[in-house]
Amino acid sequence: MKNNFNNNWTTNNNGYPLNGSEVERYISVTPDENQLRLACKPYYCFMHFGMNTATAREWGAGNETPDDFTIKSINAKQWVSAIKASGATGIILTCKHHDGFCLWESAYTDFSVKNSAFQGDIVKMVSDECRRQNMDFGVYLSPWDMHDKRYGTDAYNDYFCNQLTELLTNYGEVFEVWFDGAKGSNAVKFEYDWDRYFELVHRLQPNANIAICGPDIRWVGNEGGKTRKSEYSVVPSALRDTEKTMKESQQSEEQASALQKYSSTDEDLGSRSVLEKNAHLCWYPAEVDVSIRRGWFYSKNENITVKSAKKLFNIYIDSVGNNCTLLLNVPPSDKGVIHHKDVKALEKLGRLISSVTEKPIMIQKLGELTEDNGYIEYRFDSVKKMRYVVIEEDIRYSQRVEAFDLYIKKPDGKYKQVYKGTVIGSKKIIPIKGKKCIGACFVIRQSRSNPVIKSIGFYE
Q1: What is the pLDDT of residue 425?
Q2: Terminus of the chain with fewer CB atoms < 10 Å: N or C?
């Protein structure tokens, strides 16, 4: 047949076994309920705000006092409104960064907003505003603390757990808890009691995912918005090794820019050749964290570095549209508001994201494919200028598709290949650039057992 559509998963499956005990082992790995909810809300925002905002640093110095936090007010409503306008569904606030300063009125330290010129609890102000605007709220709590004298002793684990308990019990539902592995090269060698931290989260916020140094969400491996060509969710369980994540995280303030250019050397994390060598597998989807600016905290010197809406949208397509979640950092300024340049870019980003699916040509829910569905042809009612195709696997049944092609049927009746892909996962967004067509053909070349496709949508 023309275009070799018959070369698909129902025939030779690209030379790989379609079924068997090894394939069953792969597809038995599925997301839990929290991870399924995550896949339904794949874009949310970081907010780096705190002592570093007041002192114009990226990392603290370790000798700050509450008086150095000179910010006296914030506009939480403006923060949340700006993030919501971008299409994001939640906010993760840096409740305590590496400098150790707490944005809430913690009972376990004097180094917090309660002893500064600021009147109020910033964590409460932001979390309350998120509820008012129907946005999810998450917390970042830095394990490394360059201020607290207990750091490096067992007493610090108690301190950390006490503060984690405050954040998980006093501010309502938390959708994500973010632990990073960043630590200064001169920091005291110290092993965090990760199991104890995780148990607290699971007990106090059972619906929350634990990210990065955690078992639920994997760091993509860079801070520049880059993803792999094939971003698998079924990966070796060894990738959950918290200490390994820590070693690959920032070890100095200067390293931040290098990480933005860094592409992981482990390009292949989940192909059959990798999985067959690992006895233990897990569902561990990737999260892409990137800042709207050059730095993570606000600096007036970086106003010219605000990424354009077009660049942010490309990051969105390459992350959310490539089986990842996107965590976009938007740092409020020392005036207590999000700078107007950031607000403008976020508004435009929201419009661009909405434009992907606002003009549907055809949407079909498929489910589990059968031996009659090696390829699926679609006919449109007239000539269309197709701009996007959005494909979703039903990840309740794991991540199965390993290779697929997409063709458009031109007005003259001929087929033209417009995309050659590998994995799909929770979502694949394929830009088509307004090509004229009267139909399309979706060919799955390779799969782990029968593909289970939640939906495929074609959009003008």
Answers
A1: 98
A2: N
Give the pair of three-digit tokens for residue 302: 């970086």
Lookup: tokens for 388: 């996007």
Terminus-to-terminus CA distance in the chain, angstroms? 29
Residues 6 or more apart in contact with residue 434 via CB below 8 angstroms: 385, 386, 387
Phi, psi of 415 (to 5 degrees): -90, 145
Residues in the chain: 460
CA-to-CA distance for 86 and 339, rounded, in angstroms? Answer: 14
Residues 80 and 124: beta-carbon distance below 8 Å: no
* Number of Cβ within a 10 Å radius of residue 310: 12
Burial class (CB in 10 A: 0-12, 13-18, 19+), 267: exposed
Closest CA to 268 of 242, 315, 231, 293: 231
Tokens linked to 5: 């559509």
Q: How many Å apart are CA 299 and CA 305, to the nearest integer? A: 10
Q: What gap in Å lies between CA 328 and CA 351, rounded to an integer? A: 16
Supply the DSSP symbol for 291: E
pLDDT along the chain (460 residues), means of 10: 85 98 98 98 98 96 96 98 98 98 98 97 98 98 96 96 98 97 87 95 98 95 92 93 58 46 63 94 97 97 97 98 98 98 98 98 98 96 98 98 98 97 98 96 98 98
Note the pLDDT of residue 102. Answer: 98
Phi, psi angles (nearest 5°) of residue 332: -65, 155
Distant-in-sequence, close-in-space partners of 41: CB < 8 Å, separation ≥ 6: 89, 90, 136, 175
| Coil vs helix vs strand at 240 | helix
